[in-house]
Amino acid sequence: MISLTKELEQSQQESSTTFNGTVALIGLFGGLFWSVIGYVAFYLNFARVGPALALMPWALGDWKNGWLGQLVGILFIAVVSIPVAFLYRMIFAKINKPWPGLLFGLSLWVVIFWVFNPMFPGLKSLQQLDLNTIITTICLYLVYGLFIGYSISYEYHERTAHESEAIQS
Which candidate, 139, 155, 160, 142, places its Cα nearest to that of 26? Predict the structure, then answer.
């Protein structure tokens, strides 16, 4: 009897999490995890840019070039990843395949490193970046997009297939 009650309580807690809340958590965790991996790649000199790149458009002082800037950059990327996850949800959530996530991650890389390049004063142009930085950052953006995309698509399909929930748009 007690175990049945605990199972019912756990089931109610799991179903009470909204899809939008899950998308926000996926974005937050994805941004946090993959920006930490990006910092490790920067620290090990696989890439010449770290998470502090996200702070470069703002004149915040020289502290943003040190470890504190990298830490704040990681937190900033984690927060910015929430709307990025909702953007993925609006475009590709119904496609439960890895390709849209990879395409999404590659598109984000192109937007940051090519389109928005003039906004980042510390970022060299694409032609001036070394091959290690280009390959490492492309791979990081690919796995970031894959993580966000496949997690959101999987959750969408789990909720619609097994629970027959109506996902609010």
Answer: 155
